[in-house]
Amino acid sequence: MGAHGGEPVVRFDNLTVSYRQHPALHHISGQFATGSLTAVIGPNGSGKSTLLKSIMGLLKPSGGRVHTSTPRERIAYLPQMTEIDRSFPMPVRDCVLLGCWNALGAWGGVNADMVARAEAAIRSVGLEGFEERTVGSLSSGQFQRVLFARLLVQDADLILLDEPFSAMDSRTTAALLELIKQWHAEGRTVIAVLHDDAQVRAHFGQAVLLARELVAWGDTAQVLTETHLQRARTLAEAWDDSADICHSDEAAA
Q: Which of 104, 161, 180, 211 could share a disulfide with 235, CB 3.0–4.6 Å?
């Protein structure tokens, strides 16, 4: 189960993740191949963001395991826009330079090459001339472009994107989709949480359909069938957070 050829970069073995002992993800197994481009889709509350946070190690499994072959410093994670604080008065250039953090460390200095890379990334997302603007002064679409520029500078092997096009205008979405295609062409592994089925069909060859449990995983055309989508909707309608606590079959990782 999972993407096209190549060694798996992420593998789930019977993964269960719970909040307050109620499962957000329930017995998920599957793998993402190196260099794959995969959309994670499903109804609201179906565990999509939880899946990415599990890969990052931000959430501890209550059962099963997550195996990641990519070192943490080679993983880039873009959370949902609502989880990012833009109140700090940071210039765009400095925000993009944060993508060099793994090379800098806590006490390292920014060199001319890093500044050049950051400015090239800013140009590539169409924000030339915005280098000195503070991130708090930007529109949502402009700020998302800044975050993609930071990902460019980070130069990661595994890129995790949580609702990267939420509330974005069509022009910004098209520009960011081109960057995702570029990463895929370079052999990077990209996993993106999305909610637009048409967008997934048009741009993502692989898909994972969740409804807290796994509904389907594989080629997008075989995942996004009406049968699978209806099953996801039915499962979502049956959710009951007051249901009995799930006791996992496996010990926590």
A: 211
Q: Which residues contact 189 (CB under 8 A, 6 or more apart)?
A: 9, 10, 32, 33, 34, 35, 36, 37, 70, 157, 158, 159
What DSSP string runs through 6-25? S-EEEEEEEEEEEETTEEEE
- Domain interval for residue 32: 1-70+190-243
Q: What angle do CA 180, 211, 58 make, to 5 degrees?
A: 60
Residue 250 in any domain: the answer is: no
What digits encode the pLDDT tens for the residues 67-97?
Answer: 999 998 899 999 987 777 777 788 999 999 9
Rg over CA atoms, the chain: 19
Q: N- to C-terminal Cα distance for the chain?
A: 22
Give the Cα separation of 51 and 11 in Å (integer): 11
Query: Which pLDDT tens digit goes with each residue over 11-48?
Result: 999 999 998 777 899 999 999 999 999 999 999 999 99
Q: Would residue 53 count as lying in a domain?
A: yes
Q: Is residue 50 part of a domain?
A: yes
Q: CATH number of the domain at 204, please.
A: 3.40.50.300
Domain count, the chain: 1
Q: Is residue 81 part of a domain?
A: no
pLDDT, one tens digit per residue, over 125-149 is: 999 999 999 998 999 899 999 999 9
